[in-house]
C-alpha cells in the first residue's frame, strides 16, 4: 500500500478529511488534478456549524468579519442567528481560499498537484487508483473531486436529480461611478429582480463586490463559456441604470441550479464527499459548509476502519447519516431558487414568505437549517442523542476548558458532570452525542451499547464540573 487512504480532490472537503485522517493516525495521499491552488474563493463565509467544526480542532485561528444573519432566497427579512445555541451565532467571513490554506498547512504530507485520476480498480484488499502519472494503491479511496467527479463517474454511482433550469454568473468585480460618488453613498439594493433577470451585489473587502446575476442572456450557456465584461456591464445597466459601472473583473464563473445527489456515498472501498456526492444551487451559501461537515462525519469513521478498531457497520453510517442532511439542503435550495424567479406571481409569494420570516419561530426554524446547527442524526432516549454537543464551559482537573477544547485531538469523550442538569454524556469525535443521561440517572446498559456501536471498546471517562 502507498497509503491507507487516497483522497482525490484538494478543495476544503478533501483537505479537512485528510487532516482528520492524519489526526486519527491514518496515512493519506491527497491528489489534485489542478497544477496548483488558484486562490479563488467561490464561498466567502462559514456557517455557524462549520465554524464550530473548525474551532473544535483548533483550526479557526483567526476570524474574519462576523456576519450576524443569514438569508433565505435573498429576502430582506434576514435569518436571525442570535437565538442559536452556539458560540458562533453568526457567519464567519473567511474566504474559501483561506480555509484551504489553513487546512493544507496542517497536513504532514504535501498535496500531489497535477495528478489526474483516470481509472479506479478495487478488490477485497484495496483500491488501485490509476493517475496520469502512474498507479497508486490504498485501502480506501474518497472522491472529493467536485460536482463533475471523475471518481463518481468511474464507479458508475447513479446521480439522479434534474438538469439546470436557471443558469447564472458569479463574479468578483470593482465598480466605478461616473459621477464620482463614493461606494458608501451608492445605496444599492442587494437583490434586484428586473426585466426577467435577477442581480445580487454584495460588498467584499478592498472595494470588491461579489456579483451574481441570472437572466435570459445567461440561459443556454455552457459552464465553460467565458464570462465577458460586456455581459456583466449589461446586467449592471439593467439593474442600476448605468451608475455604478463595471471597473474590472477579478474573477468570474458560471453556475446553475442543477440539483443532483448520489444514490449512495459508498461503493465498496470507495466513498464520495462534498460536491462529488451532491450538487445544488448556491443560494443560501451552504455548499462549502455541507462538504466540510461530510468530511467531519467521515474522517473518524474511516480512520477507525483502516486501523482495524471500528465496530461492524461503522463506515456505513456515513452515508446513512449524511445523505438525508444533503437531501434537505437540496430541497431548501430548490425552494429558494423558485422564490428568486422574477415573476409577478413569485413576487406575491415572496411577500408572503417575508411575513412568515417575521414570525420568530419560523425564522428560528430556517436559521437552524441553513446554519447547520439543527442537524441531528438518529435520535435516542435522551433529547441530546444525535444532536451536536453544546460547547459548554467546563472545569477538568482543576483547569478551565470547554467541550470544543477537549475535542481538539479528535477522540471520543465520556464526560461525567459534577453539578448541573446533565449527568453524563458520550460524545463522538465529530461532536455529536452518542448517549446521555440527566443528573441522578444511570443507564450503564445504554452506555455500553452506545460505546460498542460507535467505538467497539470502552471509553475512559473525564470528570468535569460545569
UniProtKB/TrEMBL annotation:
InterPro entries in UniProt: FAD-bd (IPR002938), FAD/NAD-bd_sf (IPR036188), RIFMO-like (IPR050641)
GO molecular-function terms, A-Z: FAD binding; oxidoreductase activity, acting on paired donors, with incorporation or reduction of molecular oxygen, NAD(P)H as one donor, and incorporation of one atom of oxygen
Extent of the signal sequence: none
Named cofactor requirement(s): FAD
Lineage: superkingdom: Bacteria
Domain FAD-binding: 3-332
Keyword terms: FAD, Flavoprotein
Protein name per its UniProtKB record: FAD-dependent oxidoreductase
Annotated source species: Cryptosporangium phraense
Amino acid at each position: 500500500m502507498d497509503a491507507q487512504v487516497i483522497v482525490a480532490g484538494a478543495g476544503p472537503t478533501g483537505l479537512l478529511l485528510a487532516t482528520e485522517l492524519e489526526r486519527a493516525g491514518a496515512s493519506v495521499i491527497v491528489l489534485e488534478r489542478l497544477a496548483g491552488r488558484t486562490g479563488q474563493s467561490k464561498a466567502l463565509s462559514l456557517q455557524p456549524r462549520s465554524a464550530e467544526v473548525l474551532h473544535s480542532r483548533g483550526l479557526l485561528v483567526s476570524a474574519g468579519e462576523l456576519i450576524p444573519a443569514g438569508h433565505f432566497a435573498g429576502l430582506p427579512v434576514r435569518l436571525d442567528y442570535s437565538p442559536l445555541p452556539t458560540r458562533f451565532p453568526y457567519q464567519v467571513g473567511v474566504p474559501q481560499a483561506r480555509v484551504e490554506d489553513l487546512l493544507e498547512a496542517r497536513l504532514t504530507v504535501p498535496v500531489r498537484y497535477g495528478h489526474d485520476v483516470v481509472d479506479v480498480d478495487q478488490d477485497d484488499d484495496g483500491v488501485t487508483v490509476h493517475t496520469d502519472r502512474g498507479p497508486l494503491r490504498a485501502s480506501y479511496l474518497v472522491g472529493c473531486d467536485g460536482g463533475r467527479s471523475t471518481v463518481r463517474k468511474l464507479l458508475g454511482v447513479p446521480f439522479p436529480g434534474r438538469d439546470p433550469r436557471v443558469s447564472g454568473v458569479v463574479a468578483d468585480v470593482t465598480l466605478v461611478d461616473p459621477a464620482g460618488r463614493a461606494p458608501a453613498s451608492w445605496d444599492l439594493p442587494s437583490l434586484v429582480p428586473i426585466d426577467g433577470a435577477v442581480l445580487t451585489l454584495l460588498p467584499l473587502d478592498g472595494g470588491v463586490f461579489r456579483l451574481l446575476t441570472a437572466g435570459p442572456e445567461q440561459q443556454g450557456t455552457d459552464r465553460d463559456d467565458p464570462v465577458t465584461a460586456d455581459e456583466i456591464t449589461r446586467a449592471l445597466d439593467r439593474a442600476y441604470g448605468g451608475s455604478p459601472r463595471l471597473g474590472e473583473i477579478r474573477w468570474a464563473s458560471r453556475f446553475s441550479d442543477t440539483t443532483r445527489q448520489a444514490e449512495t456515498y459508498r461503493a465498496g472501498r470507495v466513498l464520495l464527499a462534498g460536491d462529488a456526492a451532491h450538487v445544488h444551487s448556491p443560494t443560501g451559501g451552504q455548499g462549502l459548509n455541507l462538504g466540510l461537515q461530510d468530511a467531519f462525519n467521515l474522517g473518524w469513521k474511516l480512520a477507525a476502519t483502516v486501523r482495524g478498531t471500528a465496530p461492524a457497520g461503522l463506515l456505513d453510517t456515513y452515508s446513512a447519516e449524511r445523505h438525508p442532511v444533503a437531501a434537505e439542503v437540496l430541497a431548501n435550495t430548490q425552494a429558494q431558487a423558485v422564490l428568486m424567479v422574477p415573476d409577478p406571481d413569485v413576487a406575491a409569494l415572496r411577500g408572503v414568505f417575508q411575513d412568515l420570516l417575521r414570525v420568530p419561530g419560523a425564522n428560528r426554524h430556517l436559521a437552524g437549517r441553513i446554519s447547520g446547527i439543527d442537524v441531528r442524526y438518529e435520535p435516542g432516549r435522551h433529547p441530546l442523542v444525535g444532536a451536536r454537543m453544546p460547547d459548554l464551559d467546563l472545569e477538568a482537573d482543576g483547569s478551565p476548558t470547554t467541550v470544543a477544547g477537549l475535542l481538539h485531538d479528535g477522540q471520543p469523550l465520556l464526560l461525567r458532570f459534577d453539578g448541573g442538569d446533565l449527568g453524563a454524556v458520550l460524545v463522538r469525535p465529530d461532536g455529536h452525542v452518542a448517549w446521555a443521561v440527566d443528573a441522578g440517572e444511570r443507564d450503564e446498559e445504554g452506555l455500553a451499547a452506545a460505546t460498542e456501536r460507535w467505538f467497539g471498546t470502552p471509553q475512559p471517562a473525564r470528570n468535569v464540573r460545569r
